[in-house]
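Ticket #4471: structure output looks truncated?

Reporter: J.K.
Steps to reproduce: submitted the chain below (315 residues) through the standard prediction queue, then opened the result file.
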Amino acid sequence: MPSTATFNYFYGDEATEFSYFRIPCQLITHPRFKHLSTDSKLLYGMLLDRMSLSIKNEWYDDTGRVYIYYTVEEICNNLTCGRDKAMKLLAELDTVKGIGLIDRVKQGQGKPTRIYVKRFTTQELPPQPEKEPEPPAPPPVVDFFDVQKSDFPTSRSRESRRAEVEETDPNYTKRNQIDFIHTDPSIYPPAPSARQMEMDRCEQREEIKENIEYEHLRQEFPYDDVESLLELIVDVMCSTAATMRIGGDILPVQAVKRRFSQLDCEHVKYVIETLNHTTTKINNIRAYLLTALYNAPITIGPYYSAAVRHDFAYG
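Returned output as attached by the reporter:
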């Protein structure tokens, strides 16, 4: 009879002794992730751990992608950090503001934000050798048989000339050129009424308030600061001009609107904080804020990454 060993039971919190967060090695060794802070890499491992819960609860969207729920408050509790630190770490991982390892999709109406955790590996292809350009094909030889080559009658007699060139080229200048004028009403659409413009502005304002989490910003910053930035964003999104000056450059207004449509709560908060820390005299505050809002989606990630590195160095 084989000998048996005596094993002890798990007691108390010993049941979680062998439960681990998995942090992929590539986040530590690959040069692509060198600039990520250690805490953001830990947070990514915690987000990966939540995937098992999503699969258990069948949290899939319409396309079959798995998403998780992990609120900022939970991150603060698990990492023992403040809300600002948690938002900075999420910004480092986010697609819009950081390296692109997660996508955050707001649902509105008090529902928690969905987080899509993305793969940390890529399918990078080795550089392909450049193909030598093929020599251009020679132009085809075209023979025009029955086309009159001169605007003037040929020297041959009228009896021997072909019927195709019996008459000289018609004089098109005698035609009534008014027949060629076709006004397209879509080129000059009727201008919207003042009432319609006001209604559109109100709708746009409410949509922007939801995008930037207006009520949350009101609790954290002075009313005038938040309200001024809100109205500035509304002015841009409702502009009917063809171009707009941003930072000394003349840009198509549609390109500016696309950038402003990406603004959210963190972008507005970032602009207010940088404005409060600015000591240089600002002569044109409207132009300054327009430029700051336009650049916020592409500068907020490096800004928070630098702040996190500073906290680690001097915290």
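Triage note (M.O.): checked the attachment and the full token line is present. Strands lie at 68-69, 102-105, 114-117, 243-246, 249-252.
Status: closed, working as intended.
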